[in-house]
Design brief:
- By secondary structure, the chain is an alpha/beta fold.
- The chain has helices at residues 2-25, 55-70, 103-116, 133-136, 177-188, 208-217, 230-245, 276-283, 296-303, 314-331; strands at residues 34-40, 43-49, 77-83, 90-95, 121-125, 144-146, 149-151, 153-155, 158-162, 197-201, 221-226, 250-261, 268-269, 288-294.
- α3 (103-116) packs across α10 (314-331) and α5 packs across α6 (208-217).
- The radius of gyration is 26 Å and the shape is elongated.
Length: 332
């Protein structure tokens, strides 16, 4: 008698779970993502791992699973816990000692070049007071929210977030340091999905934003942008010194506006000098990543929101070469 009484109890526990698992198997995207499937008192519960999915993908998968389980006989309520394994991202800080050296242009084209090299790349415009990436990347689309996270928009294979996408063009941001740092956090902690490299375009100088990024999110390395003349290199040295004092590896120095080829006669001149950044990199014992020429094509493309790195021009190859050297430095 005792043995007979145990049989129906086993069946009432196992059969509903089997039905739940069968329902999950009919959802292709749920394969391998569902665990801890349970049912008790008509309440079905499970854990759904949604790492690597976009906000829309997570919502769609959760809805599909919920509808499938609600259709199972005996289920009156479905409870789903979403989890996501934290993606390990490599943060690359792009900085400069002073403004006007083309740091943002280099950051944008570097991000595009890395994406074309097969990496999943995100671009954060951390120049809170003077965001320029929406213009350079040709993307002023307002990001959406997924819960408390901002969802990046995409341009040229690069996911992007900028405060310039969230405020009216030309608006002055009269924010104190803590407010700017909070805004940086919203951008860095956005819904980056499976992004593996995050290029952060920092404001010029060595202020609150730089310190907040280093202290809270510790970049894997920094790239410094400078023009060849002595004054810019003096300021670049200060930026390099900050990263060194904060134990952030220096991935290299980029010499921007290096040589100008006349579009009419082809003669090359050096309005900002030549080779200064490479010489400085050697003295400071940091890698020299390459030179970016001062060209009319580069200026026009940046103003028109079409980064040259996305094309097949000579400038595109320049940025591709810088991206290759950067990746070699990261892997080394």
């Amino acid at each position: 008698m005792a043995s007979a009484s145990r049989v129906p109890i086993c069946r009432t526990v196992s059969e509903p779970i089997t039905a739940l698992e069968a329902a999950l198997e009919r959802i292709p995207d749920a394969a391998g993502r569902a665990s801890a499937v349970r049912i008790k008192g008509g309440v079905a519960s499970l854990v759904l791992e949604v790492g690597g999915l976009s906000a829309a993908g997570r919502t769609a998968l959760e809805q599909s699973v919920r509808e499938a389980l609600e259709a199972v006989e005996g289920v009156s309520e479905v409870r789903i816990v979403l989890t996501a394994e934290k993606t390990e991202r490599t943060i690359i800080a792009v900085g400069s000692g002073k403004g006007g050296v083309g740091k943002s242009t280099v950051a944008a084209n570097l991000a595009v070049a890395l994406a074309r090299a097969g990496r999943r790349v995100g671009l954060v415009d951390a120049d809170i007071y003077g965001p320029s990436q929406p213009r350079i990347m040709g993307n002023s689309a307002k990001p959406e929210l997924a819960g408390k996270q901002i969802v990046p928009t995409s341009s040229f294979g690069v996911r992007m977030l900028s405060i310039g996408q969230l405020v009216a063009p030309g608006s002055a941001l009269a924010w104190r340091g803590p407010m700017a740092a909070s805004a940086l956090g919203q951008l860095i902690e956005g819904d980056w999905g499976d992004t593996e490299i995050l290029v952060v375009d920092l404001p010029p100088g060595t202020g609150d934003i730089q310190l907040s990024l280093i202290q809270k999110w510790k970049p894997a390395g920094a790239v410094i942008v400078s023009t060849p003349q002595d004054l810019a290199l003096i300021d670049a040295t200060r930026a390099i010194d900050l990263f060194r004092k904060m134990d952030v590896p220096l991935l290299g120095l980029v010499e921007n506006m290096s040589g100008y080829a006349c579009p009419h006669c082809g003669e090359v001149s050096d309005p900002f000098g030549s080779g200064g950044a490479e010489a400085a990199a050697k003295v400071m014992a940091i890698p020299f990543l390459g030179r970016v020429p001062l060209t009319l094509t580069l200026r026009r493309a940046s103003d028109e929101g079409v980064p040259p790195a996305a094309g097949e021009s000579e400038e595109a190859e320049v940025f591709a070469a810088i991206a290759r050297r950067l990746l070699e430095g990261l892997s080394g």
